[in-house]
Amino acid sequence: MENIFDVIIVGAGAVGCAIARELSKYELKVAVLEKESDVAAGTSGRNSAVVHAGFNNKPGSLMAKFCVQGNLGFEKICRELSVPYKKTGKLVVAFEESDIQGIEKLMEAGRKNGTPGLELIGAEEVKKLEPHVGGIAAMFSKNTAITNPFIYTVALAENAVVNGVKFYLEAEVRGISKKDGVFRVKSAKGNFFSRYLINSAGLYSDKIAFMAGEPGYKIYPCRGQYYILDKRTRDYLKMPVYPVPRPGIGGLGVHLTPTMEGNILIGPSAEYIKTKSDYGVTKDVMKQLFKEAKELLPPLSLKHVIRSYSGIRSKIVGPKVGGFGDFIIEESYKVQGLINLIGIESPGLTSSIPISRMVRDIIGSKEELVEKREFINERKGILEFRELPIEDKARLIKECPDYGEIVCRCEGITRKEILDAINNPLGVKTLAGIKYRARAMMGRCQGGYCLTRIVDILTNEYGILPEEITVRGKNSRMFTGKVK
Ligand SMILES: Cc1cc2nc3c(=O)[nH]c(=O)nc-3n(C[C@H](O)[C@H](O)[C@H](O)COP(=O)(O)OP(=O)(O)OC[C@H]3O[C@@H](n4cnc5c(N)ncnc54)[C@H](O)[C@@H]3O)c2cc1C
After folding, report:
1. Closest CA relative to residue 73, chosen from 147, 17, 20
2. With 60 as the cut, is the pLDDT of residue 82 above it?
């Protein structure tokens, strides 16, 4: 039987993919089962994309330890895997005297957690760093950075694939049993068998644990809504700007975050919801978001908004308790070989590499792990043509004329980049997959111009009928048939 592995990982978010990559360094047969049509389809593709520095987390917690470690190693992993990364720094701004106490608390937590580079600065220095931001003082965190969480997750997955890990997309796990030390995992893509089962299913990790015989966990979904602003706002903000956190249900407060691509994110809100798949945005919350964002950055206007989205936190603390829990990463006492990752909310993206090492160590404490001699630790991403000097562009167009055709005008994406995005190592051919890999359809017109051109490329180059093209896999066909 071919579906026999040493390790099965359920969930291809940033954490599942980091674990896959970490385990691919060893002589292990590893599979990742993901219910969606691409990686990063859950929370990992729907967050603030901040590489946190570790002062927000409770001293002594796993969150604090892994956030600081993750932050310190993030630049290196991004360099190795060709992932966008920018050490912007971050401001936590005080608007009233009482906020200063809040800042002192953060600095104290940062000191205990080992966060380097924290500094209390006055209003004048705030103005120098961010001329459009008000406030009477702020904490400046030198080590905070931003990244692209989708590309980060794709890069980890692609590097894992190159090193032998098998990814199965649209392979929802529907049942788990264990006999004679072997897990039998029933999925939408058939049955899989393994000695270890790693439950990295984010919002659904309680459900996977339950299926595997560990019923004690509960995840409370807590939604965060966002606005995305046009790149015309890029000069308003150089770094993430947060208010001083106030006690509440467990977010960091509505903040402003520049993206790697030059947009600004406003959000997230924090509201407990009933359904784990409810990615909607709501009028009242969005109105409040904009109001709070404008207090932080007065020049903002609603005309800058190009899109909205939401992400859902996997909380282990319910609305009555509020605040943050801690990451739970442990082997089940009841079901040997089942490693559960529960409550991986923020800073889970930042902490993904240290989390993956902890999972490796749990396995390593049970059996000897033999390092692969031929492990490849680097990955090349899609060349960003728009960022190159004119001479390099001219040379590339000569070498490959597909660089000479701009398909997405808003973002300046060439036909060659679209082709590279379609030919990805995971075999994803959805429109969302192309969009997030190549940045096409992400500009002001949101695909109004380039969508049909991308469809032409897919149909002509790959022999796919328009009716077969989906936005995000099953049940999301773009076209139903010809109109003329
Ligand atoms: C609003 C918001 C803002 C955030 N901002 C930040 C930030 O700035 N910095 C930071 O460090 N962290 C941030 N986080 C946290 C971070 O995004 C998460 O901690 C991280 O993405 C969790 O990754 P994951 O792999 O555990 O979960 P996910 O990305 O959710 O992955 C779990 C995967 O499991 C799959 N799955 C579920 N059930 C099944 C099944 N039955 N079969 C197969 N597959 C299944 C899902 O489809 C999903 O792809 C934020 C989170 C939110 C919600």
Report:
1. 147
2. yes
DSSP characters over 220-279: EEEEEEEEEE-GGGGGG-SS-EEEPP-SSSS---SEEEE-TTS-EEEE---EE-S-TT--
For the record, the structure tokens of 170 come out as 């649209």
52 is catalytic: yes
> Quick count: other Cβ atoms within 10 Å of Cβ 372?
14
Q: Which of 52, 132, 255, 304 is catalytic?
A: 52
Give per-residue pLDDT as tens, 181-209. 999 999 999 999 999 999 999 999 999 99
**Ligand 1 atom with the shortest distance to the CA of 16:** 25
Q: What ligand 1 atom has the least distance to the C-alpha of 224?
A: 1
Domains within the chain, CATH numbers bracketed? 1-83+148-219+317-381 (3.50.50.60), 90-142 (no CATH), 221-315 (3.30.9.10), 385-468 (1.10.10)
pTM given for the model: 0.96
Render pLDDT for 376-419 as a digit per residue (tens, 0 to 9).
Answer: 999 999 999 999 999 999 999 999 999 999 999 999 999 999 99
**H-run or E-run covering 175:** strand 173-179
How open is the CA angle 102-104-109, to the nearest 5 degrees? 95
